[in-house]
Amino acid sequence: MLLRLASRNLWRNRRRTLLTLSAMVVSLALLTLSLGVFSGMLVDILSSTTEQYHGHLVINAQGYLDDRDMYLNFPSDPELLKRLQQDGEVIGSSERLRGFGLVSHKDRSYPAELLGIRPEMEKTVTKLHSQLIAGTFPSDADPNGAVLGSGLAKKLSVSPGDELVFVTQAADGSIGNDLLIVRAIFSTGHSGHDNSLILVPKAWLQQLMALEGKIHEIALAVRDPLRAAEDAQRLTSQLNDGLKATDWGELLPEMREAIASFDVSRFIFVVILYFATGLGILNTVFMSVMERTREFGILMALGMRPLQIRLIVLLECLLLGLLGTALGLVVGLLLSSYMALVGIDLSGWITPVTYAGGTIQPRLRAIFEQRNFIDPAYMLLLVSLLAGFLPARRAARLQPVAALRED
Length: 407
Prior knowledge:
Layout: H1 2-10, H2 14-54, E1 57-61, H3 64-67, E2 74-75, H4 78-86, E3 90-105, E4 108-117, H5 119-122, E5 132-135, E6 145-149, H6 150-156, E7 163-169, E8 175-186, H7 191-196, E9 197-201, H8 202-208, E10 214-215, E11 217-222, H9 228-236, E12 243-247, H10 248-251, H11 253-291, H12 293-301, H13 306-341, E13 344-345, E14 353-355, E15 358-360, E16 363-364, H14 371-387, H15 389-396, H16 400-404
Parallel strand pairs: 4-9, 6-8
Antiparallel strand pairs: 1-11, 1-12, 2-10, 3-4, 3-7, 3-11, 5-8, 6-9, 7-8, 13-16, 14-15
């Protein structure tokens, strides 16, 4: 009976109910869309660092990350690679050797970082091969093919097919120098990578630096990047002495802080938006209660208890919240689907922005995460019930005689 009364009372003033319901639907839909876009930006900025250079985890000799000392290397170990590839959380691995020196073309010379890789293995960890703007990504059989960042290629005025000379200090004290052939040019939007990074064959760089059979790191990609710290602890306990697994959070503390602050920003955004929505619901229910003062007096005179009066008002709020939540989720899902599939390209108005070591691309796209729908939904239901508490309390405290005299 109480539920039937609440349902009928809700639609007594259709215009007011529909206006409040519209505000709830718009609030929930825009909130789920905004959170999806924020999550997309977060994924983009995390991907720009982990999937374009670092990887989610790196395995190094102890102390190597402090100053990238070329002598803090370790032997390439096929058995270690096999164990890592068999790990259920690891989805990609790539051995790397790192060198720093001077790269030249004709009369132009610039400092550069060379990352010695096996191209097919590197594809499982980073996505530089999918960000080429010229040429083709080299294969493992290519003896001296190089992939340059777009900024460095522009400085050197080179294109695929041109020759480069690289000079660096070798581990035996000699000066290593050799030729590279430009195979491709990539563009990530990250100025540090585009202006100084060159991918080269690992075997070529090992020979040049007199580090045959040695590597500086193993980069790993894992299933859940946000749990990379747990994976790093687990893998470190399984490694040989002198080796350590480091997650992207340690490599990029600014990025870790940015992601940690996301939940706080999310909460603040939800509170601000739903505070305004809650005021609208409060106004609607209060007006409804005031208009039905005589009706509540009659019900109480007929024997209805104050608790039942309170429940009627709260049920109205709950029904309004459930209807608004259902419609809001449907609209939010449609908007988020569009932004996930199509998105909005802003490259004509703004350029990529580097933040916390990553790059925010000039595009808006949403990604689907359960919490971006679940959290706003139950928060809207909670706000609906809280907004109905004061009107329900007022209705329950009415005196039957006084209520019957109300006009």
